[in-house]
Amino acid sequence: MTNIVDLLKQGRKDLIWEKYCGYLDLNIEEFMQIQRSLLMEQINLFKDCKLGKKFMGKRTPRSVEDFRRKVPLTTYEDYLPYIKDKREDV
């Protein structure tokens, strides 16, 4: 993968813009579609760990709307028992 320094040396400002700022060219629906997709990726990574099961239960949300209905808002205190002991297994 080409890094930003190489792209600058090559004068490829167009690729730099696309890589780091391209999202600014999106309309709101395109941007939100990417955000929904990223959230669903995170949900799929999170579903099998202890914390994922604690907050989502046995059923994995199938959409952002489902996630909002099913998963409660959390606070730092919800995670404190796991992070204070640096528990990587959860």
Describe this structure in words.
It is a single chain. With 90 residues, this protein is an all-alpha fold. The protein has 2 domains: 1-46, no CATH class; 48-90, no CATH class. It has 6 helices and no strands. It has helices at 4-9, 13-21, 28-46, 50-56, 64-70, 76-83. The relative contact order is 0.08. The model has no long low-confidence stretch (mean pLDDT 89).
Mean pLDDT: 89
Strand content is under 5%
Point out poorly predicted stretches.
none
Determine the N-to-C terminus distance.
32 Å
Shape: elongated
Q: Topology as H/E string? A: HHHHHH
- For the record, the count of structural domains works out to 2
**Helical segment count:** 6
The total beta strand count reads 0
Rg to the nearest angstrom?
A: 19 Å
Helix content: 55-70%
